[in-house]
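Input record, target 12 of the design panel.
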């Protein structure tokens, strides 16, 4: 009797596993049958061919993965700010990279106080050049080195900053986003 019950339980287990396995593979085969055609290789393994999805010739992306044409076009900026108690570079976006938009982002992220005003921002070429990095075009093998001068009024450091650290964060933010070798910050 014990052998009979053991054999019956074993048969039930085998049938339940076999039943689950065949239904899963059948549903998986139904899903992939639409995209793939199967053949059998001489060694008995399955060979599948996928049909390539048509791509957009303008950007090379598949037609099902096109960007939203109604999405706004924005500029990405990097701003120095305090994150989790330490100075960090924070990537964010602005509608258009302008001196005022960059200052507004510094105010928004708490690097400088809201009373800080932009007076002027100028860049000038130093007369020096440096080799361009990887990916540069043939006509752009060297880059002209520029420096900047930012004049601010009513300057106030952000909540977690002393004045010198806030000035350096502003200088580094402008130098990074405008690709300058250095940026001098003058407070009026």
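The sequence produced for target 12 reads:
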């Amino acid at each position: 009797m014990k052998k009979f019950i053991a054999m019956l339980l074993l048969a039930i287990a085998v049938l339940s596993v076999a039943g689950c396995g065949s239904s899963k593979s059948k549903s998986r085969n139904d899903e992939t049958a639409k995209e793939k055609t199967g053949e059998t290789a001489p060694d008995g393994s399955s060979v599948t061919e996928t049909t390539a999805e048509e791509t957009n010739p303008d950007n090379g992306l598949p037609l099902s993965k096109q960007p939203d044409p109604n999405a706004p076009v924005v500029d990405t900026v990097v701003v120095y700010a305090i994150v989790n108690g330490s100075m960090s570079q924070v990537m964010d976006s602005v509608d258009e990279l302008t001196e005022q938009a960059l200052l507004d982002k510094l105010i928004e992220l708490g690097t400088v106080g809201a009373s800080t005003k932009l007076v002027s921002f100028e860049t000038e070429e130093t007369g020096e050049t440096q080799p361009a990095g990887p990916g540069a075009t043939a006509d752009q093998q060297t880059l002209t080195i520029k420096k900047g001068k930012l004049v601010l009024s009513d300057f106030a450091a952000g909540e977690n900053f002393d004045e010198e650290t806030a000035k350096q964060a502003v200088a580094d933010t402008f130098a990074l986003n405008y690709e300058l070798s250095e940026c001098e910050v003058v407070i009026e």
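Residues 111 and 161 are 7 Å apart (CA to CA).
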